[in-house]
Amino acid sequence: MExxxxxxxxxxxxxxxxxxxxxxxxxxxxxxxxRVAKGEHVFLQGTIGSQMxxxxxxxxxVFDGPKGIAELRTGDMFGEMALVNKExxxxxxxxxxxxxxxxxxxxxxxxxxxxRVAIRMLLNIIRTLxxxxxxxxxxxxxx
Length: 143
Description:
Layout: H1 3-12, H2 21-30, E1 32-36, E2 41-43, E3 51-57, E4 59-64, E5 67-73, E6 77-78, H3 81-85, E7 92-95, E8 99-105, H4 106-112, H5 115-142
Antiparallel strand pairs: 1-8, 2-7, 3-6, 3-8, 4-5, 4-7
């Protein structure tokens, strides 16, 4: 992967903040990308999964039943709770336009990561979840 693309990923993708260029390059070399067509589901609410995703391009919607609860764009990550808690997916994610995703499976996460990289990525996941919880709490307080 080109140096410029890796540097952009480090800047835009919260999951990779604080990692070195060579660490991100190794992660991408071992993982896989996937394309999702507009209208296609990445996963359904209630299913069990063991992978998380990073949006490399496109736009996806997060749905609780029929209700849209969030939109995901380039740089956003989702599905990270599957790597942490092994519980059913809390929402459905559907492509709102043709999209490209990077997929990190649980086994890739465990196999690839040095302790430093794994800790950095887990801290980034915790930060993301914390921000989402804070936004949800603010939305509830306004009701």
